[in-house]
Amino acid sequence: MVLLLAVTPMFAESIYVVPEPCRDEAPDTPYGIPLCADYELHSALIASAETGDASAIELLRKRYDLVDTHSERHRIAAALLRYAPDDTAIWSDILAEAELAVRFADVDGDVATEFEEWCAARGFESYEHDGVLHDALAVAATDPRALPLLTKGLDTQNSSIAYVVVAGLAAQRNVDSLPAIDKLIERFPDDARWLAMMLNTFEPEQADAIALKYLDDEDDIQSYHERR
Fold first, then answer.
1. Which of 41, 110, 152, 197 has the largest count of CB atoms under 10 Å?
2. Which tens digit of pLDDT belongs to each residue from 3-39?
3. Can you give the pTM of this predicted structure?
């Protein structure tokens, strides 16, 4: 599984942990860990793009088309969606994958037959490609253009999707979604405290009232207010 949320800097915590961001050996497949030379080049270009360096942004756009791993493609996409003057094509790519993540989300670990068939028709391995789609959703989640998809995702029965949906709506300060977020958290009792923690980025007291329904540990409550 690729690191979910790592490509989106605004998220304070990741759901999955990756032991290393890159390796000295080239990856065998697009699902592998990127070559360190590529990873470090992209990191430098992203840092330059953050300063508004147009040449770095243009190089990232070219690298996006050439990169050989899904994880680096998403990392570059996340930067281009923030800094590129025209991100239309990148957004189209990412949104298409993000929509598939919501559409094909498994329930209780059972991979949807439709997703297995979709992957088989394209020569993809379903477990690996599921991680790719989840990462794309994480990249898309903080962009206002993803709001219709995140709203649809509020009905998910998949806890990983739920995390990204709540974090994305919180990042966008989408107050109108709070009642639906409350219902979503209620569906995932084992994850409720972690999902509730994400509500601290909302400003209205309405969010606090929902979060405190699921935080009964004093340390959790203190942490929630500190993060606020």
1. 197
2. 344 433 344 343 444 568 999 999 999 999 999 999 9
3. 0.87
- The answer to whether residues 79 and 72 touch, using CB atoms and an 8 Å cutoff, is no
- Say if residues 195 and 188 touch (Cβ distance below 8 Å): yes
Contact 74, 139 (CB under 8 A): yes
Distance of CA 34 to CAs 27, 30, 50, 193, 200, Å? Answer: 6, 9, 22, 34, 34
* Closest-CA residue to 151 (of 169, 129, 138, 164): 169
Please, how many CA atoms are within 13 Å of residue 39, restricted to the half-sphere of its CB?
17
In whole angstroms, how large is the CA radius of gyration of the chain?
A: 18
pLDDT tens for each residue of 177-192: 999 999 999 999 999 9
How far are the Cα atoms of 44, 106, 123 from residue 142, in angstroms, in the given order? 23, 23, 30
Check: CB of residue 130 under 8 Å from CB of residue 111. yes
Find where tokens 């998220």 sit: 11
Strand ranges in 54-168 using DSSP code E only, listed in sequence order: none
pLDDT bucket at 201, cuts 50 / 70 / 90:
confident
